[in-house]
Design a protein that fits this description.
By secondary structure, this protein is an alpha/beta fold. It has helices at about 1-35, 75-85, 85-105, 120-125, 130-140, 160-170, 190-195, 205, 215-230, 240-250, 270-280; strands spanning about 40-50, 55-65, 70, 115-120, 145-150, 175-180, 200, 230-235, 255. An 8-stranded mixed β-barrel has the order 1-2-4-5-6-7-8-9, surrounded by 4 helices. The structure holds ligand C2E and magnesium ion (MG) (3 copies).
Length: about 290
């Protein structure tokens, strides 16, 4: 009897695995098709230097333009892409598209901007990451200093290999930002060792700086700590004048958020950047 039950359990188990891998295969197929059909698009969100009063960069943010569902946000498919491994191909497409786009804007005569690209965990640990990025820079002609890679603290868990990858990336001349900073568990010692240029304060802290003094303290501490470590600090998710004023007061270097601009279609970027730079320079219709 026990034997029979054991066998049934095995059957049940393998049936579940079957269903699971079938669902994964279907998802993978859908994402692969989306990539082949060119259904992914990148939108770009401006980042402003608070002291220099100008737009210094844009972050590229992926969307899936699906015929049936319309625009699908990255949180809805990036985790699945990561699970199935397709993130590697999608991530390569993102890097190439963003670099090509930035080169195009420079050729159009826009003030040079750094383009930020989010890297996923799997992508970060791909053995050919460095070669892939170097090849894209050569192919598109973009100078490495105009590309910034955004990584998260969770990728630093395997500190030794992460540090090695970061040094290789720095060697080819690209910039590094730590995204969603404050959500993970980076020790100060790690942060000091890591060759990163930017800390991006997670928007959850920024959201509440106008209401809770606790988050005010956290944000002020992150800014001061970033500066001690000789890193530039950028706040994301800035939506209000009050948030901006607090960040300015605490010497935050850059800001990104709806208060400046939402992520926009690349076709609008030349106009948006021009308009924002005008307003930042003139102080006539001041944003700050
Ligand atoms: P993230 O890199 O932390 O990007 C910031 C997110 O906050 C973006 O959401 C952006 O649209 C949103 N945001 C910016 N300013 C504001 C604001 O003032 N208020 C509010 N409420 N939200 C703001 P989005 O575009 O939905 O992207 C979500 C996440 O998906 C990103 O978080 C990033 O982790 C991931 N992601 C986006 N594009 C890519 C990509 O190309 N590759 C990978 N691996 N991940 C990506
Ligand atoms: Mg990001
Ligand atoms: Mg973030
Ligand atoms: Mg995020």
């Amino acid at each position: 009897h026990a034997k029979r039950q054991g066998k049934n359990n095995v059957q049940l188990y393998s049936k579940q695995i079957d269903q699971l891998s079938k669902a994964n295969l279907e998802t993978e197929m859908m994402l692969r098709k989306a990539l082949e059909r060119g259904e992914f698009v990148l939108h770009y969100q401006p980042q402003a230097d608070v002291k220099a009063r100008r737009i210094t960069g844009v972050e590229s943010l992926i969307r899936w333009h699906n015929a049936k569902e319309g625009m699908i946000a990255p949180d809805k498919f990036i985790p699945l892409a990561e699970e199935t491994g397709l993130i590697v191909a999608i991530g390569e497409w993102v890097l190439r598209t963003a670099c090509k786009q930035n080169m195009k804007w420079q050729e159009m005569g826009l003030p040079p901007m750094v383009i930020s690209v989010n890297l996923s965990v799997r992508q970060f640990f791909q053995p050919d990451l460095i070669e892939m990025i170097s090849a894209i820079l050569v192919e598109t002609g973009l100078e490495p200093e105009y590309l910034e890679l955004e990584i998260t603290e969770s990728m630093m868990m395997n500190m030794d290999s992460a540090e090695q990858i970061l040094h290789q990336l720095k060697a080819i001349g690209v910039k590094i930002a730590i995204d969603d900073f404050g959500m993970g568990y980076s020790s100060l010692n790690y942060l000091k060792r890591l060759p990163t240029d930017h800390l991006k304060i997670d928007q959850s802290f920024v959201r509440d700086i106008s209401n809770t003094s606790n988050d005010q303290d956290i944000v002020a501490t992150i800014i001061a700590m970033g500066h001690t470590l000789k890193k530039k600090v950028i706040a994301e998710g800035v939506e209000t004048k009050e948030q901006l004023q607090f960040l300015q007061e605490k010497q935050c270097d850059e800001i990104q958020g709806y208060y400046i601009s939402k992520p926009v279609d690349p076709a609008y970027i030349p106009w948006v950047i021009h308009e924002l730079n005008e307003r930042l320079r003139e102080k006539a219709k001041p944003i700050f």
